[in-house]
Amino acid sequence: MTLAETAYDALRRDIVRGVLAPGKPLRMAQLSERYGMGFSPLREALNRLQAERLVTSIALRGFSVAPLSMAEMWDTINTRVLIEQRALRLAMAQGGDDWETGIVSALHSLTLQSTRAAEGGADEQKLLEDRHHGFHLALIAGCGSSWLLEFFQRLYAEAERYRYPMLQQRNVENHRDIQAEHAALAKATLARDADLACDLLAEHYLRTARFIEAQMTAAPQAQSA
Questions:
Q1: 193 vs 108, 123, 141, 186, CA distance in Å?
Q2: What whole-number distance in Å separates Cα of residue 67 and Cα of residue 55?
Q3: HTH gntR-type domain spans which residues (predicted)?
Q4: N or C, which terminus of the chain has less Cβ within 10 Å?
Q5: What is the predicted pLDDT for the residue at 224?
Q6: What confidence tens digit (pLDDT) does each residue in 133-169 have?
Q7: Nearest of 60, 61, 71, 52 to residue 11 by alpha carbon
Q8: For residue 107, how far is the Cα from the chain centroid?
Q9: Phi and psi (nearest 5°) for 141?
Q10: Alpha-carbon separation of residue 90 from 21, 27, 83, 198, 216 (angstroms)
C-alpha cells in the first residue's frame, strides 16, 4: 500500500468508528502527528474521503469530519436499500456455485462470531463487524456490477457511522434476533426468491434505521435531563 492508501484506510476507519467525531476539524499538523506521516499523503486521503462525503471542506477553514443528521441517515439508508436490492436481484439472476458457497460460508462465520463477541472484548467485536460486512457483501457479490459494489462500500461506511455507536451498548436491540434475520435473508437469497429476499433486506435495514432514529431523538433529552 502507498502512504496515501494507508492514510486513507486509517482516517476512514477512525471516522466510521467515531474516533474522529462528527464536525471535528482535521488539522494537518495534528493528523501528521497522530498518523506519523507527511502532509501530502494525508491531503490525498482527505480529498478522497471528501469525494465519499465522509469529510467536508470549506475554503479558508480546511477539512472537517462530515456531520451526522437524521435526514442524512435516512437518505443513506433509503439509498442503500435501493442499491442493494438491485444488486441482490442481479446476483440471484447471475450468481453461480461460488456465489452461493460464499453466502453460506459468510453466514456461518458471522453466526459463530456473534456468539464469541457476546462474551468477548473489543477484538472479538471488531471481528464481528468485519464478518457482518463480509456477509452483506457476499449476498450481492455475484451481481456483476463494479459500480453497484462500489456504491455498496460507500453507503455501508456511511451507515456504519450511525450504527457503530449503537454497537457499543450491549443488548440495546435485545428485542431483535438479528442473526435470525440474517439467516432468513440468506435462505431467501439462496432460494432465488427475489421478492422475498429484497423485502427482508429492506426491513432488516429499516428496522435498524428506526432504532437509530429513536436513539438519536432520545440522546438530546438524556443530555438535558
A1: 21, 36, 17, 10
A2: 9
A3: 1-68
A4: C
A5: 38
A6: 999 999 999 999 999 999 999 999 999 999 887 666 5
A7: 52
A8: 17
A9: -60, -25
A10: 37, 43, 11, 11, 34
What three-state secondary structure class fits 183?
A: helix
17 in Cβ contact with 65 (< 8 Å):
no
Q: Give me the mean pLDDT over the 185-199 stretch.
A: 98
| 3 state SS for 41-94 | HHHHHHHHHHHCCCEEEECCCEEEECCCCHHHHHHHHHHHHHHHHHHHHHHHHH
Residue whose C-alpha cell reads 435526514 in the numeric block: 71
On whether the CB atoms of residues 184 and 139 are closer than 8 A, the answer is no
Q: Which residue blocks in the chain are alpha helix, DSSP H?
A: 3-16, 28-35, 39-51, 70-94, 97-119, 122-140, 146-167, 178-190, 194-224
pTM of this prediction? 0.85
* SS3 assignment, position 25: strand
Domains and CATH numbers, the chain: 3-65 (1.10.10.10), 70-218 (1.20.120.530)
Cell output for 183: 439467516
